[in-house]
Amino acid sequence: MSWIDEILDRALENVKKYLKEKDKPLKRYKKRVKNRNILYKKRMKLGRVKRKVRGGNHGGK
């Protein structure tokens, strides 16, 4: 039974490594977006940025 356990352990390690590598770009993207949002909020408080009005009906008839 021990050789089956070794094979299963190796397979489990490979899956863990694959999932970890796959997750790296997503974490990097989330950090970048979070940082961008924080910087945007700070600029809004200082009045350096005006919100862009996009599309739709803006109070007109």
Automatic annotation (TrEMBL):
Name of this protein: Uncharacterized protein
Native species: Clostridium botulinum (strain 657 / Type Ba4)
